């Protein structure tokens, strides 16, 4: 028995050592750190792309996904915007620093200064950092992107529906920007456009929103075309897949589908333009592109929303349709084309992965994510990694390998579906303890609590212990 245990230990140490050497020599044959472009859509569903069954093609996005690694089980930490973006940039669960729900345009809170972002970490390695698009982690001085590691920022501080325009009830054409009327006495504040920490336009108009995708893409290409000796990090959180929907005049009707498909088509066109710019500047081989979304589709908007594909639920609930999103990573220098990874991955894993690639020691609070570099390089020995989903200040579910446990609660479900840009309604539905085998039941339809008592007990114990630990060490949200 002792000999067998020794052999197993030696084998484990050998596997670990080989994995360590493989990870930490990733830059050995390439002295230049990779450029990084992180594309983050807003409310885009898993089924909105050609590779996942969309009704209209996305050839540029599909090509990029096939050039590297496609993640079929890519998760976000929360099914709503601000929380999801906070987790992405910090590698930590946002409830650790009291992010409970979407930040409002009247809030004076934001991401705490003590939370290290991807941008701050990359700055320490000499990267030039840029953000073009939607921030939504605090819009007052001290909470803006330039206060959290970005050298350059151009975009909007919160969601594009947080403005003083409302859909004209008499409007029937969902593509007509004139159907949005300015409401001076709206409780919502105007939607400004920022450059750096300065407002350069106090109130965004529908005409501005029409060109957001093109403008954010143009600025990305400007960085690519004017690259210096320093590597760049571009965070590109497009806002246009979130209602209200707008596309530029030259892309209207080009998808062959509805307005939402036109929006996706314009983003696909933009990814083609970015790829061409990388190639023209001879840096595509050593540029990492990560493409994903902040949460699932806002289903109550009907034809102005995306598709969850084969999964249950959407935005605002932690069923797979709300937290599983389309994603890929392309890095021609390092990643084998055509790779498909079915293991669960989460946005909180990106910061530690970048740290691993660049041999950086992250600063600040302990991370919740883990480096997925071994998985990217083909290591299949990793044990299941637990992922926890918080929303509204409560732990809603736990994912562990193929298993998913839901806590008792009420969740939101679209009741009456809207159309042409008009919102539908939602109802709240109670759910008790629920256990699903996601691998064999992706729709989360067969509750296995009674038939798998050992699994249920194990996951319940894990979840309660984690929640207790998090609650006892929770930090306050940033006050500005």
Describe this structure in words.
The chain has about 475 residues and is α/β, with parallel strands linked by helices. Helices cover about 25% and strands about 20% of the residues. It has helices at about 1-25, 60-65, 80-90, 120-125, 205-210, 210-225, 260-280, 320-325, 350-360, 375, 455-470; strands spanning about 35-40, 70-75, 110, 130-135, 150-155, 165, 180, 195, 200, 230-235, 285-295, 325-330, 340, 345, 385-390, 395-400, 405, 410-415, 425-430, 435, 480. The strands form 5 sheets. Strands 1, 2, 4, 5, 8, 9, 10, 11, 12, 13 and 14 form an 11-stranded mixed beta sheet that branches. A 4-stranded antiparallel beta sheet has the order 15-16-17-20, covered by helices on one side. Helix 2 (about 60-65) crosses helix 7 (about 260-280) and helix 6 (about 210-225) packs parallel to helix 7 (about 260-280). The radius of gyration is 22 Å and the shape is globular.
